Amino acid sequence: MSISMIWAMAQNGVIGRDNSLPWRLPRDMAFFKEQTIGKTVLMGRKTWESFGGKSLPKRRNVILTRDQSYLAEGAEVIHSLEEGLQLAAQEELMIIGGAEIYSLFWTHADRLIVTRIDENFEGDTTFPELDWNGWNVVSETPGVKDERNPYDYRFVVYERTK
User: Fold this and answer.
1) Going from the N-terminus, what domains does the chain have, and what CATH number goes with each?
2) Does 107 have pLDDT greater than 80?
3) Taking CA atoms, which of 79, 114, 116, 144 is between 20 and 30 Å from 31?
């Protein structure tokens, strides 16, 4: 089974505001695409709707929602953690948000890919308070700060210790 989680997070734990990102970092968006292309991405309904209800191209899009009647053109809909774990038994699953979905899959993940932004942002969604014991940094790459990417940030990959 292979479950990775990917997200960007401000210094103060903010991951979203008004169902959107409170920052603009094109290099992070390119990194996200590079990490998820050709893979199965699993997200909650709100994350799906933050993309305008459009599937991410060249990825298998899976939405996890409690709403049994929810339909999403261009995506598969599942309704339980167990269904998500069945997918992960067959292929690498990339969890892409939001906060409730990260909490749900946290104990099952074996890799975290986090863009850490060295700024505080106003927001209404923060990364859940979870136990980071048992995670080791395996790589940390500074992001390039420039006129289009105005913040200090870094890409950090964690793996669960066995």
Assistant:
1) 3-150 (3.40.430.10)
2) yes
3) 79
